[in-house]
Amino acid sequence: MNLKRMIFKRSIEILVVFFIILTGLFVLFHLAPGDPVSMMVDLTMTPEDVDRLVQQLGLDRPLWTQYLLYLKNFFRGNFGTSFHYGRPVIEIISERLPATILLFTTATILAAMAGVWCGKLIAWHKGGPLDATVTIFSLLCSTLFLPWIALLSIWFFAFRVGWFPLSGMITPEIWVLPNLGFWAKATDILHHLLLPLLTLCIVNTGAYLLIMRSSMLETIKEDYIITARAKGLTEKQVRNHHAAPNAALPVITSVGLSLAFSVNGGALTETVFSWPGIGRELIFAVSNSDYPLAMASFMFIALVVLVANLIVDILYAYLDPRIRY
Amino acid sequence: MQSKTETGKHERHSYRAKLLIDAWRLFHDNLIGRIGVCLLIVFGLMALLSYIPPHVDPMYHPMTGVDPEISYASPPSTRHWLGTDNIGRDILSQLLTGARVAFLVGISSAFISIVIGTLIGIVAAYWGKMLDGLLMRFADMVMVMPSLLVILLLSVLFGQLSIWTIVILIALFRWPAVARVIRSQTLSLKQRPFIDMARVAGASHLRIIFRHILPNVLPMALLYMTFRITSAIIVEAALSFLGFGDPNTVSWGMMLQWVWKTGHMFQAPYWLLPPGLCISFMTLSFYMMGRAMEEVLDPRLRRVRNAKHAAA
Amino acid sequence: MPNMPLLDVQNLTIVYRTNAGPVIAAEDVCFTLERGRAVGIVGESGCGKTTIGMALMGLLPENGFVQQGRIIIEDTDLLSLTKPALRALRWKKMAMIFQAAMNALNPVHRVGDQIAEAIQTHYPDYSADKTRKEVAALFDLVDIPRNRIDDYPHQYSGGMKQRAVIAMALSCKPDLIIADEPTTALDVIVQDQILKKIKAFQDDMNIATIVISHDIGVVSEVCDNIMVMYKGRMIEYGKCEEVFMSPAHPYTVALLSSHLSLDSTYDFQADIENITEAPAASVLPGACGYAEKCRHADVQCFVQTPAWRHLSSTHRVLCLKVVTNDQ
Ligand SMILES: Nc1ncnc2c1ncn2[C@@H]1O[C@H](COP(=O)(O)OP(=O)(O)O)[C@@H](O)[C@H]1O
Ligand code: SF4
Ligand SMILES: [Mg+2]
């Protein structure tokens, strides 16, 4: 089947791209002013520690050996020790990654679905007052400055109204309670999740909605829509069963194209909401010149984007038989 | 012979002029475009006015001016129309300067990125084959890079970035979309007879590119410039918001960072609201202008669209 | 009522609202059609053929409306129906094979499902199994192998798509089928097959057919009657042999002499040009619409609107210069 071939091909491509990114990071690291040893070495380290690190990274060996060691260390999950936390970077990453994936995937999926759904309805009432209002409103939303709207929503929904917690992902006081059930934990996380999610959705939905709307307006001029009408289907059937599945395809493409952009937004959101994700960790590490943590966080973010890209491609192929068969 | 080419040139010029007038008329009829232009004029005025406050009184200097009598965040007053920040600097004058910086960052970065994108797009389409494949793959790769985070990473490796470095870095991450569009335009131009004719007449590659292709793809490049401006402004604002902006200038993102980092976001809405509003509305206005231009610049699309509709 | 025609179109006038003002796409069109018979509508592109077909389906685009006239199928007046009532009639009473059959199938649904959908809309009590059997039978009918039922449109060749569209049109056993340029995009051999199929169904199932084409050759192969149109007006109507053998209108003569065909390949561009020129509205009032191009035109043609003249009980023509027996 063609789909499997496509997935295989795209996976290889992604591996190559990731490899190039890894190499690029290595090059950048060595291009940077300053001695690589001092960049990887923390003030608190003992001389033995430093020696071991220099050995491990091959910092005293030729550049290409260092490069091979660098790749080897990456695939072994050995990213060094974070200066700030004093713990292995891989531990920190594996703690942070799930939080990011939770926020990022729910936000992307929700925004895309809401955009498709609203865009579909709006396009069907083209030219009316509702259409004009929603279009202008979505334009507005999609250009809102994300950190600002995040601050505003914290100020309003968390601070003034008090519906949501101010920040974080869990309430520590609840989590220390013994034999706390799964559902209690899940509800607590959900409670923390809602506000960042809402913020991301406000900004992303607008863009998807606009794409869906114009895609829908193009699609309803297609001949198969006239066929569907001629068959005696109701307007709702024509819209939902014939127009929408075709019109949604460009939205999926644009979800894929804007993944990198969404990751930027995700990192900002995590930072403002103190959501313990990998994007916040990267920004934090950068502020503290915590090189090992910053580099590793970036690698994993790149990996998340690439994998998400692959998933979007597969979804597209799944929804468009012209690619699948 | 001489006069013939002259008239040809003349005709082409008047034809272009007519196109411009048509485009302007369409643009003028477009509500979204009009709103965009009005907003931009407001921001342009803000940028111009930003030179005034420091001359009125040094305490209105956006960076160094501190009101000697105020050393806390104060709400709007007659002395400070939009209030002051926590060390007594005037918010209005910071806001005006922010407009200048946003224009500077947005336009220069967008300009660089469309130059890169247009060149790469034309080269890829014109020479095709291997080079095309390679360049487009490269474009795809750059496109999936989260630009903000890469720039952050660069700033940890290379230290504090100046505003011009930031401008160039943003441009380096924002050309792929331009390159793709220009490439497909060039590809379709290549099919047109006048390119063949020029080639048969012995025109060099460079001449074909600069005389025949570039003028035709330029409008599209310009359209993309408005969208690039939007994204450049956002990336710069986000960088400054996170504390990695150029510390020698004040920008709207930086103002937001100060509100946030000094913990004034709950107490001082007069400080929190203006910079965010400005960033959002400025990007909105460029975006609106871009959308309006898109409609004006794509007459082919428009015609086919109508035709399809009519044939239905 | 055995003598009552299935379809009776009276004085149909259709207007499009455009930015440049109203465009009359069809004017004063009258004809009737009995069961099992076929009428062909011929004319150059832009003369209003598709518009008439769409009006018969009640599917005019938003900016188009019937300004005048009546469309009566059996004993229902189409124009007076409510939307749901019209929906119930569509496909069951009248079905259409669309001009651009290549795009008439939805790319994201299986061909078989798209046909089944039509059946299930009009026969909601059919089980999934029964519907499936019907679809299979339809595929047999139009000579598409059954194992292609679950394929997607892009996996079909042009001819297969066209046949699938015909199968779809037949799926609810309509009384009337409107075939709009059914063969235009196909190569000659496939064209011939498709025409034969249409002819066969018309005879076997007693279906009334309207065949629309810019190619008088196509129409003459399958139709009993021919209607020639020019700029939105019928200009000649008669039995196929009459029109073909003794064309009376100068335009029909020109049509027939130009290789029996106007243009060998359908030109979408021409349609676009026509739209911008709005030809239908350009008819001078009080003159023959064809006068500017007519070889036989004289002063009279520019000042007098022609009226119908009958050459026989079945053959009529809209031209001032035609000499008839009864004059
Ligand atoms: N939706 C529409 N809006 C405006 N004018 C239309 C529309 N559809 C068709 N027309 C005009 O009506 C005339 C007849 O079109 P059509 O019925 O498609 O012609 P044909 O099928 O004979 O080629 C053409 O001149 C065309 O310009
Ligand atoms: S009426 Fe005159 S102009 Fe019109 S078709 Fe007859 S001869 Fe020609
Ligand atoms: Mg037609």
UniProtKB/TrEMBL annotation, chain B:
Membrane topology: Multi-pass membrane protein
CDD domains: TM_PBP2 (cd06261)
One GO CC term, this protein: plasma membrane
Transmembrane residue ranges: 31-52, 101-126, 270-290
Start and end residues of each ABC transmembrane type-1 domain: 99-290
Domain of life: Bacteria
Keywords attached to this entry: Cell membrane, Membrane, Transmembrane, Transmembrane helix, Transport
Biological process per Gene Ontology, one example term: transmembrane transport
UniProt-listed Pfam families: BPD_transp_1
Subcellular localization, as worded in the UniProt entry: Cell membrane
Family annotation (PANTHER family): D,D-DIPEPTIDE TRANSPORT SYSTEM PERMEASE PROTEIN DDPC-RELATED, OLIGOPEPTIDE TRANSPORT SYSTEM PERMEASE PROTEIN APPC
Family, per entry: Belongs to the binding-protein-dependent transport system permease family.
Name of the molecule in the record: ABC transporter permease
Source species: Desulfatitalea alkaliphila
The organism's taxonomic lineage, starting at the top: Bacteria, Pseudomonadati, Thermodesulfobacteriota, Desulfobacteria, Desulfobacterales
